[in-house]
Write a structure and sequence with these properties.
Number of strands: 12
Largest sheet: 8 strands, mixed
Structural class: alpha/beta
Strand content: 5-15%
Radius of gyration: 24 Å
């Protein structure tokens, strides 16, 4: 299948059908090469939807929402290729996108697509953008156009972090997302593992966290030495923090409330001794099946008990049994928009529904804790209401108290906030996805 046909399939499924980008990418790329090239172009078009539509509005008489969805997708692809892919001549873009109308079943629009894209192609990038950006618009509107980000999200970032940091965040979300792996220390020594990478010609860089490496762009994970033997787990640098700061002891019982895809449960099991155990729970049987495959690959079936369970449900059998509860709750995902570009279009709408769910999961989760046990709360968002706002709620309404994260953190992350028991990772400011983690001690008597 030609390259642009695959890209069309991904972009159309994400923007018009609401399928998540990782699922759409996986379905479109089965048995096909050039994975990274397709991903870059498809995700880039999704990221720039707002910008592409603003450009399109200036050259067509129809409203963008009234276009045939297939034509709308092709035009977005063409505009993205015209302005963000320097290696393709603009004449080629116009011709190829016009031909694509025949492939996807709208040949009657061949001339229309060709004409619109040729009109846009006559514009140089700077004059077209200046026309939009020189108008007297707020920073949120201008930055939204430049980075293809909804104005509401930009406003949130500006109010919370200021313009300088907001620009760094938005720039970071445009960069290709690196692959991070965490070495399974119970199975292989880090020095031995990195020497094997060198022998295979795979470039890597260390990170601020021991045992977590950043790999060269484009490396195929199954081709990394030790994948099938279970010597490493693909896991973003930020997402290793909850277990890193949990202060696990070898004999601990750990309950992971929202465990899939399994990185935290596997990381915890790697740190526990023979008497320690992990109870990994998730509400989705489908996700749990995939997690079990990871656990088997990592040779940890005997240490991790997988259970399909909704974290909002009370479980009398587990009451007061856990030393540590990990609550990596469903969230708006604002910290991972660089990896999942479609999140930006609906994230803020979901926050009001997510916060009650997050609080309910924690309320049920602390019932599992022993007196003096540890709750580690985390999200992959940078929305203050889901993070610091929720921690304030937890400590005011539940017998929980924040405790310092410093014992588990490298010096680079030891600051005033982490001393108070919380840490917000911002893209562009720190390496890794946007992420939040908080550590709290349970002051109750087991009857919460």
């Amino acid at each position: 299948m030609p390259l642009r046909d695959i890209i069309f399939q991904i972009v159309f499924n994400v923007l018009e059908k609401g399928i998540s980008s990782d699922v759409a990418l996986e379905e479109a790329m089965k048995g096909k090469p050039r994975f990274h090239q397709v991903k870059r172009l498809a995700y880039g078009t999704i990221e720039r939807k707002i910008t592409c539509d603003e450009i399109l509005r200036r050259v067509i008489s129809l409203k963008v929402r009234d276009l045939d969805p297939r034509v709308r997708t092709i035009l977005r692809m063409g505009i993205y290729e015209r302005f963000w892919v320097d290696s393709v001549p603009k004449e080629v873009t116009c011709n190829e996108m016009a031909n694509l109308t025949k492939t996807v079943g709208v040949p009657q629009y061949t001339g229309y697509v060709n004409g619109v894209l040729r009109t846009i192609s006559k514009q140089e990038k700077d004059p077209l953008w200046d026309d939009i950006l020189k108008t007297k618009k707020k920073d949120s509107k201008k930055l939204g156009f430049i980075y293809g980000m909804p104005e509401g999200i930009v406003t949130l970032f500006l109010n919370q972090y200021g313009k300088k940091t907001t620009v760094k965040i938005l720039n970071a979300m445009e960069e290709p997302a690196p692959v991070y792996i965490r070495i399974q220390n119970s199975r292989i020594d880090e020095k031995e593992f990195t020497q094997e990478l060198i022998r295979k010609g795979i470039s890597y860089e260390p990170t601020i966290l021991p045992g977590v490496l950043r790999l060269q762009e484009g490396v195929a994970v199954p081709d990394i030495p030790g994948f099938h033997e279970g010597t490493f787990m693909v896991q973003d640098l930020s997402s290793t923090l909850p277990v890193t700061v949990a202060g696990l002891k070898p004999s601990d019982t750990v309950v992971d409330l929202c465990a899939c895809p399994g990185g935290k449960s596997i990381q915890a099991a790697d740190l526990l001794g023979e008497k320690g155990r992990v109870i990994a729970r998730d509400s989705s049987a489908k996700r749990m099946k995939r997690m079990k495959e990871n656990i088997t690959r990592m040779h940890l079936d005997s240490k991790i008990a997988c259970q399909v369970w909704d974290g909002r449900k009370e479980d009398p059998d587990l009451k007061g049994k856990a030393d540590v509860v990990l609550a990596d709750v469903p969230c708006s995902g604002l910290g991972v928009m660089g990896r999942k570009p479609e999140i930006r279009f609906h994230a803020l709408e979901r926050v009001s529904q997510l916060i009650p769910m997050q609080r309910e999961i924690v309320a049920r989760g602390i019932q599992n804790l022993k007196p003096g046990g540890t709750l580690v709360y985390s999200t992959c968002t940078i929305h203050p209401e889901e993070n610091e706002g929720n921690v304030r709620y937890f400590t005011e309404h539940f017998p929980l108290a924040c405790v310092s994260l410093w014992d588990g953190l490298p010096k680079a992350l030891q600051n005033g906030q982490s001393a108070r028991g919380m840490l917000q990772i911002l893209p562009g400011i720190r390496e890794g996805n946007g992420f939040f983690v908080a550590k709290m001690r349970y002051k109750g008597n087991g009857s919460a």
